[in-house]
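Deliverable D2.4 — example input (structure tokens):
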């Protein structure tokens, strides 16, 4: 029995030897390009032309004419007793060196895994999107591979990495209420939503950004002037009764600017004058904010109406749809327009104080009217028209009866502007007698009288009734406390036909259509805001 066991052992050893010596092999043959080094699974095996016998299986084969001119074919199968012929076309490459925190992440390009971190390998020249995956966390990075150079990157898969910069760089960065400092800054953040604030002088803005593990962003803050779009906007200005919009005239018509984002949300124009040959001179918005009326003196296209002495267009729009409800040519002169009788009528006045009352649906004349004074300014509230005159008198015209129910001398000079407060409790007036007055609407009593060093041509009061802005004839605007103390002044370079408050800190100034300009100011500085861009 012992002898038989020995025989069996010798037999199995012999069989194993025979099988191993007959293991399946095949060949690869590489001829092109000639003289190139050949690497199989990273090991140098010779130069082309080359024929090499390999065990049947899958191989990664690289052919390189120089260190950085190479071509790789991955997963090449060598079959038993077959010759696999291959050609290579080496291309310019560089090296990517990549690592992650923590290490061991799978490195992928597209759907294909190309290694794990720490990673170092040759990649073709150009832009690559590299993906790193470690468990449930994934991140991607764009990397530029340059010929003959090594590109390095480290990806934090435990936190988000944010690179902050700003223009100007002396702004101050705050993250979640903590002061970080001036720019540039590189910060690691935990996953979640973070609040960033950036501040310089009077300009401060806040932004939120949601980040996750593995994110890497470049965030830049730019302090930009906030100016209206290039629509050649000009005054006069007005505010809707709900104080949601301020309204201006402009190149193509009448614009409603949202007081929150200071962008035009409603645009009204004359569909019969798409080239905007003639500009609107004034407008009025109904107290309920539903309709707008605009006056357009016809000058450029007057030849079309040669039989009309004073061609003047009256347009009325539905503010909800921006559609034209009425478009009618009139033959008269009018410098002022307003609504009356719950917007059922439209009042047109010229500077002499003469006017007409029209039906707002048809523009048919209801009656002629005269206030017996030269008109310099007017404003309407609660179906009453407050009219400023050249003599300094303030008239109150009741549009229910068309009678003047109150008149009194408020100023000793011409009243240049009248405006109504946001809460509709007071009106403010500006006069050539170099005074500004605050008048209580309930009893028409003068609450405040402020002396101005230069003739005020426009005026307005802040929503809180604590500040007055005065547009002056010397091309400046001045902001005063309600008691007359000077807070700051603004140099404009144009005569401010209208001024106003977007809020307690942001003021608006507007020129006439001869030099169209509307500016926004933050505490006397040209309004600027931080704009965030994220890459």
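Example output (designed residues):
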């Amino acid at each position: 029995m012992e002898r038989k066991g020995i025989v069996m052992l010798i037999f199995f050893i012999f069989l194993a030897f025979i099988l191993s010596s007959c293991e399946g092999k095949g060949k690869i043959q590489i001829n092109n390009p000639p003289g190139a080094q050949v690497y199989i699974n990273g090991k140098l095996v010779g130069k082309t032309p080359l024929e090499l016998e390999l065990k049947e299986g899958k191989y990664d084969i690289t052919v390189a004419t120089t260190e950085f001119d190479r071509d790789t074919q991955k997963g090449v199968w060598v079959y038993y007793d077959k010759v696999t012929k291959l050609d290579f076309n080496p291309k310019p490459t560089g090296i990517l060196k990549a690592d992650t925190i923590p290490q061991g992440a799978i490195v992928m390009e597209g759907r294909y895994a190309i290694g794990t971190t720490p990673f170092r390998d040759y990649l073709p020249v150009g832009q690559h999107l590299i993906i790193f995956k470690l468990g449930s966390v994934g991140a991607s990075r764009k990397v530029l591979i340059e010929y003959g150079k090594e590109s390095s990157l480290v990806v934090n898969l435990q936190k988000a990495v944010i690179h902050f910069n700003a223009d100007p760089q002396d702004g101050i960065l705050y993250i979640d209420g903590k002061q970080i400092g001036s720019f540039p800054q590189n910060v690691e953040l935990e996953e979640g939503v973070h609040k960033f604030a950036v501040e310089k002088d009077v300009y401060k803005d806040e932004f939120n950004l949601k980040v996750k593990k593995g994110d890497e962003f470049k965030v830049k803050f730019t302090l930009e002037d906030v100016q209206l779009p290039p629509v050649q906007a000009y005054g006069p200005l007005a505010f809707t009764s709900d104080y949601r919009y301020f309204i201006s005239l402009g190149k193509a018509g009448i614009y409603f600017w949202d007081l929150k984002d200071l962008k035009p949300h409603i645009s009204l124009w004359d569909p019969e004058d798409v080239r905007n040959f003639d500009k609107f001179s004034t407008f009025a918005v109904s107290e309920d904010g539903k309709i707008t009326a605009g006056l357009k003196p016809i000058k450029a296209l007057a030849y079309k109406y040669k039989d009309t002495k004073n061609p003047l267009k009256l347009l009325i729009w539905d503010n909800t749809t921006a559609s034209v409800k009425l478009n009618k040519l009139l033959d008269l002169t009018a410098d002022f327009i307003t609504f009356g009788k719950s917007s059922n009528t439209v009042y047109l006045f010229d500077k002499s104080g003469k006017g007409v009352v029209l039906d707002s649906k048809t523009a048919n004349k209801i009656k002629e009217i005269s206030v017996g004074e030269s008109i310099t300014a007017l404003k309407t509230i609660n179906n009453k028209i407050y009219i400023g005159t050249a003599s300094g008198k303030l008239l109150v015209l009741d549009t229910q009866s068309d009678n003047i129910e109150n008149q009194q001398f408020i100023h000793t000079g011409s009243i240049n502007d009248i405006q109504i407060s946001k809460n509709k409790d007071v009106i403010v007036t500006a006069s050539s007698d170099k005074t500004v007055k605050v008048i209580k609407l309930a009893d028409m009593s003068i609450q405040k009288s402020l002396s101005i060093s230069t003739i005020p041509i426009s005026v307005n009061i802040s929503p809180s009734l604590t500040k007055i802005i005065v547009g002056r004839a010397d091309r400046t605007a001045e902001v005063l406390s309600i008691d007359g103390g000077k807070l700051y002044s603004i140099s404009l370079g144009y005569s401010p036909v209208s001024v106003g408050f977007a809020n307690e800190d942001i003021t608006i100034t507007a020129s006439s259509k001869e030099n169209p300009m509307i500016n926004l100011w933050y505490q006397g500085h040209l309004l600027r805001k931080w704009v965030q861009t994220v890459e």
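The mean pLDDT is 92.
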